[in-house]
Amino acid sequence: MKAKLVKKLVAVSLVSAMAVSSLAGCGNGGSSDKDADKTTGKDGEQVLKVAAFNGGNGEQIWKDIAEAFEAENEGVKVELDISSELDQDLTKKIKNKDYPDVVYYNLGQPSGFTENMLKENAVADISDVFDDELKDKMLDGILDGTDAQPYGDGKVYLAPIFYTPTGLWYNKNLFEGDQKKYDLPTTWDEFFALGDQAKADGVSLFTFPTSGYLDSTVYTMLEQAGGMDFYNDALQYNADTWTSESGEKVLDTLGKLVSPEYTQEDTVANANADGGFKINQQNVIDGKALFMPNGNWVIAEMAASTPDDFEWGMMPAPKWDGDDTQAVYMFTEQMWVPKDAPNMDLAKEFVKFMYSDTVVDILLNNTTVDKETGKESAAPIVAPVKGAAEKLPDGTTKDVYASTTADDIVAVTGKLATTKPIEGLDVQKNIYGATESINTGDMTVDEWQKQLVETWEKCADNLEQ
Amino acid sequence: MNREKAQRRFIFGCLAPAVILMAIFIFYPTINVFKMSLFRMGAITNTSEFVGLSNFKTLMQDKNFLEAMQNTILIIVMVMIFTIVLAVLFAALLQRGKFKGKTFFRIVFYIPNILSIVVIGGIFGAIYDPSNGLLNTFLEAIHLDGLTHKWMGEPNIVIYSVIFALVWQAIGYYMVMYMSGMAAIPEDLYEAAALDGSSEIHTFFSVTLPLIWTNIRTTLTFYIISTINLSFLFVQIMTDGGPNGKTEVFLNYMYKQAYGNGAYGYGMAIGVVVFLFSFVLAAIVNKITDREVYEM
């Protein structure tokens, strides 16, 4: 009987071992071989792994940059990993300890990939890339925000490689030229008065593609309401942010703006449907709503359904009576180096290279092909380097960049500071998702304020470092 | 004795691959989910810290989770009721009814089941669109303007829009299952019922329904499991939980917490609760639907 049991056990273990070993072949087998040539390719050339998110900018731009980097650095081979599901690909690789050297993936994506890397302290400090010479070359203040220094500790972890001014986008023909119908408002009072005027014409004042697009509006309103110090404190979760006079001013104004009184009636329904954000954007083109928060990527995004005689315009969010300046939010896209990157030095060289004249020109000459029409159109990208925006061809995009350098405009950068992961908290939903409930009458501004105070408190308790 | 041994070996050999695969791909990951729910873990790097039952404590006070739970239960109940009623009705009509084009309707009802979720998302996007959508345009065309709604925007309606899509997709599959049950009912039972002067409806309730009861019971467990899974896919494509959490469901919230929020251990704790919830619910449903089985 005993012998039988032993036999059985042996049989079971043998069969399981066989199955496990054969299945192991399906996994990341041979990783030790891979590890050996991780940093050096054939003929001793150094391999730099660059992982880039395939968003609206297309793939070609990364191929051109890689080629240029190889040309300037002999013996270096750039291995590109361009993917529209980069977060998922990299999560798998990083779990298997296969780290890329450089990653281009923005903050603020729905996957929260870069935020999670920061929360897990897995991003390298790259302050030394930005020596005095490079700092001089870059736009003033672009490295000071929490989107470059996510922990607010004076160290740069995220390199802002592209930037775009954001604001409220509108149909320029309605405010200028022969078909002019309305005056462009500069204060909130004028803005809402325009809303009442437009309503009489059957047009809504405002729409938003999805509630997440309101982030830039909220950021600029915070600066506008309380000044730069108030804004910076708010991003570091100052407890008084939303109960202060400035904070309440922001909430009341935004609450009024997203109410059904001023926001186009289909906005929330479209914002939640698959691809519905484009319908909301189209509503501005079609004249159903006057303004929406956006960036200049919207021009290329909506090109296929924009009439030829339509002209885009962008203005900063309005100011309150008595303010001298208006604020524009500079949306930046980030590149970073994982803490465990195998080629740290070369990775930093690559980040630095992103600000070289060669790359600045490659970016400005970028083109994209519209998937629906197959039409190729110019889609210049601007590096946050002094003078880059001036090289743009004449047109809406150049005007938008130029308008942000005016004396009465304050440029605002940054994102909410990085916290440790907080179980059960959805910061984006609590700040922006709530606007949908205000629109549908499911939540009041007071309830929103209370929710924000609680959110800020939780985040402040969990700030990294 | 030898023969018995050989037979046993043969059975063992046949079962081993399945058991091993189950152990590796189902039992081991499930145990792992339970284990991971006790840790605070990063979503990307392999950092972890043991926190005991802290994740579960947080979960019980998490309003977003409770809202997701409420929504999921509503979806399961509504989808179950509507799909059973409609699927059994259509199955009975197609199996017992006497009209032309039965095969055509069978195919038509089954088609939604083979469509990919992305396509279904697109279809319902076009149906529910507030300005140019099929539904509102149709209602306006027949002068029922008062019934038009923002199907994907109104907080009290949006969950029913998702439920409708789920029911639409599920009917065909369950209909085919019930039809196979009905096909096994001997014709002489119907003949006897007819001779006794039983009406079609009476026959349905006293012959058809009792004899496919075992079928229906089996499908109840399927409803629970598949609705939990499918509601995740539908919600991800159709609303992503919006507006402001009104259509949030278990698994979508778990995914958002584990990956979007970087609280992987917490996500696994949600997984554990979902696992236990579906298990317990299936057991309860199984118990309360227990009836004497009629032999055919």
Quick take:
The complex is a heterodimer of chains A (465) and B (296). With 465 residues, chain A is α/β, with parallel strands linked by helices.
* Count of individual domains of chain A: 2
Structural class of chain B: mainly alpha
CATH topology tier name of chain B: MetI-like fold
How would you state the average pLDDT of chain B, rounded? 92
Distance between the termini of chain B: 40 Å
Structural class of chain A: alpha/beta
Q: Please report the first level of CATH classification, the CATH class of chain B.
A: Mainly Alpha
Cα shape of chain B: flat
Q: Report the major sheet of chain B.
A: 2 strands, antiparallel
What features would you describe in this structure?
The complex is a heterodimer of chains A (about 475) and B (about 300). Chain A is of the alpha/beta class and about 475 residues long. Chain A contains 17 helices and eleven strands. Chain A has helices at about 1-25, 30-35, 60-70, 85-95, 115-120, 130-135, 190-200, 215-235, 245-255, 265-270, 275-285, 295-300, 345-355, 355-365, 395-405, 425-440, 445-460, and strands at about 45-55, 75-85, 100-105, 160-170, 205, 290-295, 310-315, 325-335, 365-370, 375-380, 410. In chain A, α3 runs antiparallel to α14, α8 (about 215-235) runs antiparallel to α9 and α16 packs antiparallel against α17. The radius of gyration of chain A is 25 Å and the shape is globular. The termini of chain A are far apart. Mean pLDDT of chain A is about 85; it is low at about 10-40. Chain B starts with a helix and ends in an 8-residue tail after the last helix. The radius of gyration of chain B is 24 Å and the shape is flat. Chain B contains twelve helices and two strands; from the N terminus they run αββααααααααααα. Chain B is mostly helical and about 300 residues long. In chain B, α10 runs antiparallel to α12 (about 265-290) and α11 runs antiparallel to α12 (about 265-290). Helices cover about 75% and strands about 0% of the residues of chain B. A two-stranded antiparallel ribbon of chain B has the order 1-2. At the A-B interface, α1, α4, α5, α10 and α16 of A face α1, α2, α5 and α11 of B.
